[in-house]
């Protein structure tokens, strides 16, 4: 199956232009239609102008409606893909902060141990294979494609070197924006507030506990969130995430199971069971697979591999079978 490549910035721009054209057509339809001979000249010009608007005003109105629908369609697709992309970017930012914190802690421990051995005189301080100093702990990353699309993630750390706050802001040149701020507390609890491209606000609370065994660090996270839309609709999501990090290879493997209760795209109340598997290595190679199953057993599977997206649908999604490539609706 070929990769799905969606330029949601282009789609959002087309949506804006369609609505702009609709406004121009509306302005023309509602503009002055009766002119005196002194304004436009003799020869029946004023009558011709009035006749023109009388004949075409219905077509103008229908064009406005179609342009508005076209704008809504493109905007909907653009925001849908952008929302998915932004959520992955937010998750990646948090993983990056955790990876950075773990790597910095490991490198500092190695460096401190080396310095202790140098002080004890048990190693050669000029050894060319000596470990490198860890440098400054990273506090912010910003990506800018040069076209007005930016992602900025900032981190704050506690005395133990663990992240205490992670904030991400994503902004595109056509005005799509998403923000996410998470606060982490010493007892393992955390809270976050996120606003997506639709303006929906999600607040989340959770409890994250860490255990270590050999080179592996396992984090188990229990979370509950509430999403409120601009029109007052509300949905809740509860779930568990288990993440295993290998301090030697830098590989992180995560799995999430969750349940969402609330209105679907048609406003119908329902329950969705979801699972997500994510893996990321120190080289930045990342794979995310999400399966969501509705109450009737149907659902979708979405896989994102280093930014490339594939999506399938199935009437037996609950059995993880019967997948067919997703087709756009007419």
Distance from first to last alpha carbon: 21 Å
Structural class: alpha+beta
What does the radius of gyration come to?
27 Å
Give the rounded overall mean pLDDT. Answer: 79
Low-confidence stretches: 1-6
Describe the structure.
- The protein has helices spanning 8-30, 37-40, 45-120, and strands at 140-144, 150-157, 163-171, 177-184, 189-195, 201-213, 216-228, 234-246, 252-263, 269-280, 286-293, 299-305, 308-314, 324-325.
- It has 330 residues and is an alpha+beta fold.
- It has a 14-stranded antiparallel β-sheet with strand order 1-2-3-4-5-6-7-8-9-10-11-12-13-14, with helices on one face.
- Helix 1 packs antiparallel against helix 3.
- The longest helix is centred in the N-terminal third of the chain and has 76 residues, at 45-120.
- It is elongated and about 105 Å long.
Top keywords for this entry?
single chain; 330 residues; alpha+beta; 14-stranded antiparallel β-sheet; 14 strands; elongated
Summarize the structure.
Strand 3 and strand 4 form a beta hairpin. 31% of the residues lie in helices and 38% in strands.
């Amino acid at each position: 199956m070929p990769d799905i490549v969606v330029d949601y910035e282009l789609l959002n721009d087309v949506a804006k232009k369609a609505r702009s054209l609709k406004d121009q057509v509306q302005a023309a339809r509602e503009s002055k239609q009766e002119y005196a001979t002194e304004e436009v000249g003799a020869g029946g010009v004023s009558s011709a102008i009035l006749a023109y608007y009388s004949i075409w005003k219905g077509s103008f109105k229908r064009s406005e409606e179609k342009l508005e629908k076209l704008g809504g369609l493109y905007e909907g697709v653009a925001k849908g893909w952008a929302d998915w992309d932004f959520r992955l970017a937010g998750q990646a930012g948090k993983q990056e902060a955790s990876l950075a914190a773990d790597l910095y802690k490991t490198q500092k421990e190695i460096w401190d141990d080396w310095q202790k051995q140098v002080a004890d005189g048990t190693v050669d301080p000029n050894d060319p294979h000596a470990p490198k100093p860890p440098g400054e702990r990273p506090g912010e990353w910003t990506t800018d494609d040069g076209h007005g699309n930016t992602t900025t993630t900032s981190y704050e750390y506690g005395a133990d070197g663990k992240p205490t706050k992670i904030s991400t802001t994503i902004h595109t040149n056509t005005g799509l924006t998403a923000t996410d701020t998470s606060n982490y507390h010493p007892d393992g609890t955390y809270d976050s507030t996120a606003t997506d491209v639709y303006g929906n606000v999600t607040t989340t609370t959770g409890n994250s506990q860490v255990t270590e065994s050999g080179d592996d660090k396992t984090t188990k996270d229990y979370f509950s969130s509430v999403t409120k839309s601009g029109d007052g609709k509300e949905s809740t999501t509860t779930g568990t995430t288990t993440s295993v990090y290998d301090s030697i290879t830098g590989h992180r493997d995560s799995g999430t199971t969750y349940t969402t209760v609330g209105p679907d795209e048609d406003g119908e109340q329902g329950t969705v069971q979801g699972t997500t598997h994510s893996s990321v290595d120190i080289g930045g190679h990342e794979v995310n697979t999400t399966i969501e199953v509705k109450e009737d057993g149907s659902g979708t599977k979405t896989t994102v591999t280093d930014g490339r997206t594939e999506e399938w649908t199935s009437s037996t999604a609950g059995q993880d079978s019967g997948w067919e490539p997703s087709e756009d609706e007419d």
